[in-house]
Design goal:
Elements: H1 5-8, H2 16-41, H3 55-77, H4 83-92
Helix pairs in contact: 3-4
């Protein structure tokens, strides 16, 4: 999942609660469009799993690994942005339902 970082940073403004559902919708739509195009382009390559059923798990592991890396980066460079990777981890583990 891609999070729209500039919107997340606006959590102190009154617009955040209004804009967050739209940012989540945009994020899900763009992610699905990108993944569909990517898989169509590289469907015959050996770096993708042979069984389509394995793809969601592989993608989830990648996104979790990326979010953990981002926690380390944000701690060292932008501690105020730590909620972004934490929110991504919670979403991937099923702790946040953003598809409202």
């Amino acid at each position: 999942m891609l999070l729209f970082a500039p919107l997340i940073q606006q959590d102190t403004s009154g617009d955040y609660k209004t804009l967050e559902p739209w940012a989540n919708l945009w994020t899900h739509y763009i992610s699905k469009v990108f993944l569909k195009a990517y898989l169509e382009q590289f469907q015959d390559n050996s770096f993708l799993p042979e069984k389509k059923e394995q793809l969601p798990q592989l993608l989830k592991v990648y996104l979790l690994e990326k979010a953990v890396y981002e926690i380390g980066y944000e701690i060292n460079h932008r501690p105020d942005w730590l909620p972004i990777p934490f929110k991504g981890i919670l979403y991937e583990l099923g702790g946040i339902d953003e598809e409202k």
